[in-house]
Design a protein that fits this description.
This protein is of the alpha/beta class. The chain is built from five helices and seven strands, in the order H-E-E-E-H-E-H-E-H-E-E-H. Strand 3, helix 2 and strand 4 form a beta-alpha-beta unit. Helix 3 packs parallel to helix 4.
């Protein structure tokens, strides 16, 4: 379990560019040639966790929990399986909000604008790793936990539109149209096109 010890405004947040540079260096405990872990240490926040490849699937959840390279939690294991089943050679776990919290009820009540801005930098970086970025919306009903989360998704959509990102979902959507969370999906669950713009308009 990861229970935030404070709000992210009370900790030193490493800017994405600096965190990425640190993640490119050789790491202890895991291969930085296989894994992309930004920042490359356990903290109260996480921008990216995934594997390196030529055809990545960007999975967007709500917020990170305890997973690290080589120590994937059940959600990340499901993401990896479904990415491979759909023809991708790697997965990149990104989150609408970067604060670590195993229980979404522990998410901070107010959006840290600095953390969100740097998280957008991370998403922009991921979008440019491929000429045809594929983004899997996978946040489930957790998006309803905080009002600022839907606003964060709108910013992600704007960045994706700039590079013609293709959005997908997997599994059955909820009554309110939320895309299914990765947990409990079949390991070969197919990805389907997801109109994230219409979804946001209906929220």
């Amino acid at each position: 379990m990861h229970i935030p010890q404070s709000t992210t405004a009370q900790v030193e947040v490493l800017r994405f560019a600096d965190a990425l540079r640190a993640a490119q260096a050789p790491a202890e405990g895991y291969s930085s040639e296989k894994w992309l872990y930004v920042p490359p240490f356990y903290a109260e926040y996480r921008y990216i966790l995934g594997t390196r490849g030529q055809k990545p699937l960007i999975c967007v959840g709500i917020n990170p929990s305890t997973a690290e390279p080589g120590r994937l939690d059940p959600t990340l294991k499901s993401v990896e399986r479904i990415a491979h089943a759909n023809g991708f050679d790697s997965f990149l776990m990104f989150n609408v909000y970067a604060e670590r919290a195993t229980n979404p009820d522990d998410l901070e009540m107010r959006c840290n604008t600095l953390l969100h801005r740097e998280n957008l930098q991370a998403f922009d970086y991921l979008l440019h790793l491929s000429s045809t970025p594929a983004v899997w919306a996978a946040w489930g009903t957790i998006i309803e936990k905080r009002d600022y989360l839907a606003l964060c998704v709108r910013d992600l959509l704007a960045l994706g539109e700039d590079v013609s990102a293709r959005w997908y979902c997997a599994g059955a959507r909820t009554k309110r149209g939320h895309p299914h969370h990765p947990l409990y999906l079949r390991k070969d669950e197919p990805l389907r096109p997801f109109d994230v713009k219409s979804y946001l308009e209906a929220l």
